[in-house]
Amino acid sequence: MDMCQSCQYNMQVIEKIKNQVPDNELTTKLADMFKVFGDNTRIRILWTLFDKEMCVYDIAEKLDMSQSAISHQLKTLRQARLIKSRRDGKNAFYSIDDDHVKKIIEQMVIHVEE
Amino acid sequence: MDMCQSCQYNMQVIEKIKNQVPDNELTTKLADMFKVFGDNTRIRILWTLFDKEMCVYDIAEKLDMSQSAISHQLKTLRQARLIKSRRDGKNAFYSIDDDHVKKIIEQMVIHVEE
DNA sequence: AATATATATGAATATATGAACATATGAATG
DNA sequence: CATTCATATGTTCATATATTCATATATATT
C-alpha cells in the first residue's frame, strides 16, 4: 500500500479527499466518529488504555468515576470499534482496538497545544 | 522546532503525551475541539473551505441548507478558531484559519476508510 | 446452592445541541 | 433616505447525550 513511512498516511486516501466535498455518507461517518472522541470521559478512558489493557473497576478508580458511568462509555467506545474487551474470570479487560486512535488524539493535541 | 518532515508532527508534543492521562484541562480542551468536528454540517463546511474562501450564501447554496443554519455553524467554527472571516462589501468571506484542520480530518478519513 | 464480586443494562433526569423561524444588523445602491 | 441584498442573532422546539440509580447478569468462592 502506498503509505508515508513516517506518518503512516495512506497517500491514496489523501489524494481522494483533496478536492470536492464528499457525499453525506462519508461526512456523516466522519462526524459520528469525531463525536465519539468528543467527550472528556471517553478521551480519558482511551488515554488510560494507551499503556496497557485495564479492567472496568481499575479504569473507574483511576478516573475517579462510577463503575456504571465507565461501563456505559466503554460500550460506546466498543461500538465505535475503538476498543475491544476480553473476559478473564470476573474481570473484563479493555484495550485499544485500533492503531489510529493514538494518532488521532495526538493530532488534536498538537492542534490545541500550538 | 523538532518536527517530523513528512507528517509535521511535533515530536516534543508526542513525547509529552506518551504515558499518563493528562489533567482534565487538556482532555476537556481536546474533547471540546473534537465536538466541533463532530457534526456533519460543520465537516461539510470545512471541506467546502479547503479549496478557497467562500461567502455565506455560496456555502449555504453548495450545501443546500438555509443561510441561518450555515451562519450559526460558521459562528461555532469561528469561535473554535478553525475558520476566520473577512468582510468585503456585503459579503463575509470565510476561510480555514488553521493548518491542522485538514490534517485532523484526513487522519479521521484514514481511520473510517480503513 | 448461597454468597460475593465484577460488569452490564434499563429507566429516569438534567443538560446540551442543531435547525427552523422570525427578526435585526450592516452595507451597497437607486 | 428608502430599499435591497447579505449576514447575524435570539428564541423555540425536538432530539441527543451523560450520568445516576436500581437492578440484572456473569463468574468465582465457600
Helix/strand order of chain A, N-terminal first: HHHEHHEEH
Task: Look up the CATH topology of chain A.
Answer: Arc Repressor Mutant, subunit A
Rounded mean pLDDT score of chain A: 90
Tally of discrete structural domains of chain A:
1
Unreliable spans of chain A are: none
Oligomer: homodimer
Number of helices of chain A: 6
Reported for the largest beta sheet of chain A, the result is: 3 strands, antiparallel
Radius of gyration of chain A: 16 Å
* Strand line-up of the largest beta sheet of chain A: 1-3-2
Sheet-strand content of chain A, in percent, reads 5-15%
Largest interface (C-beta under 8 Å): A-B, 52 and 52 residues
Q: Structural class of the secondary structure composition of chain A?
A: alpha+beta
Total E-strand runs of chain A: 3
- The separation of the N and C termini of chain A measures 32 Å
Question: Would you mind describing this structure in some detail?
Answer:
The structure is a homodimer of 114-residue chains. By secondary structure, chain A is an alpha+beta fold. Chain A has one domain: Winged helix-like DNA-binding domain superfamily/Winged helix DNA-binding domain (Arc Repressor Mutant, subunit A, Orthogonal Bundle). Chain A has 6 helices and 3 strands; from the N terminus they run H-H-H-E-H-H-E-E-H. In chain A, strands 1-3-2 form a 3-stranded antiparallel β-sheet. In chain A, a hairpin with a 2-residue loop joins strand 2 and strand 3. The longest helix of chain A has 14 residues, at 24-37. The first copy, chain A, is elongated, with a radius of gyration of 16 Å. The two termini of chain A are 32 Å apart. The relative contact order of chain A is 0.12. Chains A and B meet through helix 2, helix 3 and helix 6 of A and helix 2, helix 3 and helix 6 of B. Chain B binds a DNA duplex (30 and 30 nucleotides) through residues 35, 39, 41, 55-57, 65-75, 87, 89-92.
